[in-house]
Amino acid sequence: MDQTTKPPPHVLIFPLPLQGPVNSMFKLAELLCLAGIDVTVVVTEHIHGRLLRYTNIQDRFNHYPGFQLKTIPDGLPADHPRSGDKFMELFDSLKAKTKPIFKDILTSDCLTAAGSRRPVDFIIADGSLGFTCDVANEIGIPIVYVRTISPCCLWVFFCLPKLIEAGELPFKPAEDDWDVLIKNVPGTENFLRRRDLPSFCRLGDLDDEQVQFYKSEGEENSRARGLILNTFEELDGHVLSQMRTICPNLYPIGPLHELLKAKLSTQKATPLPASSSSLWQEDRTCMTWLDSKPLKSVVYVSFGSIATLTTDQLMEFWHGLVNSGIPFLWVIRPDSIAGKDWESNIAADLREATKQRGYIVGWAPQEEVLAHPAIGGFLTHNGWNSTVESIYAGVPMICWPYFLDQLVNSRFVSEVWKLGLDMKDTCDRSTIEKTVRDLMVVRKQEFTERATEMAEFARNCLKEGGSSYCNLERLVKDIHSMMSQD
Asked: 64 vs 281, which has greater pLDDT?
């Protein structure tokens, strides 16, 4: 390198060690690599093992000389599930055991590759990992947070202290009226109900660890120099304007998965290997099955990487899907059903009906599935990645949220964006059958037209001069300027 040439910034990215955040932040890492920035992604050893087992992530990033992947322990035993009702234990362990190791990584020379890159100039970390900001402030490195959950749910988190002060929380789970409107989340007063609040709000206990953790979100996220969000102004502008009263510097750069494709399409370089950061083995036979189906005839069913169904819930969904008469592609993760003997409970006639109109896989290449012309609807848990991917693909949704932000997202899908039907708090075969038919037959034209309109907004924001395109350029510029100041 010429001695007069300033070396590129060195950004460290630390995702929350779950499928959704890991998926989003590898895409962000690649976007920064394309902008000429050196990037180190730090993942937990558990996540690293799954990436090596199921993806080609290292081959993909070998094409970027400025990229490196490093690991850090999460402090949990190898057999810990790291999900479900054990979810909060992951945060506790990261804070207690990973924080000092994270500081050691930043203050040692282990990331400089024997002097071939600068020490870390800038940190981008998941905003739920508050210890990263503590460390950044201690050693004087600027930090920007990423939140891979939805802005609409993050805004609810920001308002939790106000909800508690106003007496809207706690409310008792035994109360019958779950449809009482919530009045202290500005901008949502006319449609957000008790049943749409994040799942921990149903506990009726302000001392619960989740309530305590999330009620400090506004204070925590405002400590960083900015907040990166996987959304776009045309989708979430009304919520973003509220959020800016607490976190003024927002970078809405979504849909991330498509912004990356758009940037790659402008590069003149040799095509890169197909990208995947899946933590499960993808079964691509489903794509061949979809090829045999008519346009917009199939409902895709997936409840994401964390949700667990009971055997009873599984059977209600199975009967409802079969009885709807609509072809379906269903992802049933190997660990997604409570109990190990559920397969033996599937009646012969149900299996036969599934062979006729359904296809079941353990995991699917979801972005490709949603983009397939045979897909006409998405029965989803409404994780934020899945929701944004569906919006971009122009696929209407049936919402069956599992926990946390998904309950808020599903309400926005049905009542704000008018992109589908919210089926939360129900799980019976007749409701499932009717809702699938409503989306795929009765109201198909209505939802398809609205989804197509919103998909066009999403495409436009990624073009040169579009909102997400410009926000990414501003982020890159700010990384350079913050580096030169500190």
From this structure: 64
CATH number of the domain enclosing 357:
3.40.50.2000
Is residue 242 included in any domain, yes or no? yes
Say yes or no: 353 and 392 in one domain: yes
165 belongs to a structural domain: no
Give Cβ neighbours of residue 263 (< 8 Å, ≥ 6 apart): 31, 34
Domain total in the chain = 2
Which of 209, 213, 218 is CA-nearest to residue 156?
218
Residues near 256 by beta carbon (within 8 Å), at least 6 away in sequence? 24, 27, 28, 31, 230, 388
Six token digits for residue 393: 């693909």
Burial of 429 (0-12, 13-18, 19+ CB in 10 A): middle
Same domain, 322 and 250: no
Cβ atoms within 10 Å of 137's Cβ, excluding its own: 13
The answer for 295, left when phi > 0, alpha when psi is -120 to 50, beta otherwise, is beta
E strand or H helix at 40: strand 38-44
221 and 137 both lie in a single domain? yes
CA distance 367 to 258: 10
CB 276 within 8 A of CB 55: yes
Q: What's the CA gap between 56 and 54, in Å, rounded? A: 7
Q: Tokens for 302?
A: 């997936």
255 prior amide bond cis, ω within 30: yes
Q: How many CB atoms neighbour CB 207 within 10 A? A: 8
Give tens-digit pLDDT for 390-430.
999 999 999 999 888 999 999 999 999 999 999 999 999 99
Q: Is 176 exposed, middle or buried (0-12, 13-18, 19+ CB in 10 A)?
A: exposed
Percent of the chain with pLDDT over 70: 92
CA angle 469, 390, 191 (to 5 degrees): 95
Contacts of 342 (CB under 8 A, 6+ apart): 311, 314
Do 326 and 263 fall within a single domain?
Answer: no
3-state secondary structure 61-103: HCCCCCEEEEEECCCCCCCCCCCHHHHHHHHHHHHHHHHHHHH
Residues 260 and 380 grouped into a single domain:
no
Closest C-alpha to 400, from 383, 376, 385: 383
User: DSSP letters along 182-237, please?
Assistant: P-SSTT-TTT-BGGGS-GGGGG--TTSHHHHHHTTHHHHHTTSS-EEESS-HHHHH
Q: What is the pLDDT of residue 485?
A: 53
Q: 343-352 burial by CB neighbour count: b if 16+ within 10 A, else e? A: eeeeeeeeee
Nearest to 14 by CA among 107, 135, 188: 135
Residues 269 and 293 in one domain: no
pLDDT tens digits for range 135-149: 999 999 999 999 999
- Using an 8 Å Cβ cutoff, are 264 and 176 in contact? no
